[in-house]
Amino acid sequence: MRVPGISLVVTDLDGTLWDHEHRTHQRTRAAWDAIEQLGVPILVATGRRVGSTVSSLAELDLRPPAVCLNGALGLYLADSQRFHRAAIAAVDALAVLDAFRSHGLQPCVYVDRDDVAVYLDANPSTHPQHIADFGGDVATADLDEVCRNEAVLAFSVLGAPEGPAGRVVASVGAAGIAHLDRDPYYGGWSLTVAGPRMSKWNGIEAFCTAHAIDPGGVLAIGDGPNDAEMLTGAAVAVVPTGAHPAALALADHVVAPTSEGGWSEILHLL
Known about the structure:
The chain is of the alpha/beta class. It folds into 2 domains: 8-85 and 201-269, HAD superfamily/HAD-like (Rossmann fold); 90-194, Hypothetical Protein, Haloacid Dehalogenase-like Hydrolase, Chain: A, domain 2. Helix content is 29%, strand content 23%. Strands 5-4-3-2-1-12-13-14 form an 8-stranded mixed sheet. Strands 8-7-6-9-11-10 form a 6-stranded mixed sheet, with helices on both faces. Strand 3 and strand 4 form a beta hairpin.
């Protein structure tokens, strides 16, 4: 059933545009092109860093604008121009770093630089394959100095043990917003921390402002707890079958599983 007034489609990536085996259904890819032909812009909103977002979407021959790192950075993938940045204040970044360390975890620290995307210390706690996946975007540094002097966007440890990761979440307090969920790629748990009051929806609002789009015309589709703010803020919230209960609870429309091309069903709402 068509929903009138939709002026922007916002989509999560993992578990939404593609499944957790990184497979995009052919109906989904065809629907993306059909939506663009209708003249409705599509914005990506993901927890992924910029480099990972670019390379994954390039496999589908797509270069849309994107909100990355759960709302920390918004940019046009075609030319890397920014439309949004929400760096964490140094005092908060240092407090988040201390929360990780106090529970035995050394995080990845994401920054907004052209030459380095992620800083690690000598003994990072994230999964070794996660480090390998950074490619040339990573460097080793004193993380205290990074937090004091760089535009820090987020922290993460992927493939983390549940106990320490959960204790970090409880310790972050007002210094940041923590997301903890099972990690389908590296095993264990995925722990990310963004700045206080930061969410995908903040980046979406910045994109709307830059393009004179009414946020009241947003259709958003996502599957995870980190999509909660954008599903709440959107005029129409779409969630695939099999998504996290926190996302399903916010759905206006539940579509077929991602592996069956459920994403393509949003075309019928436009």
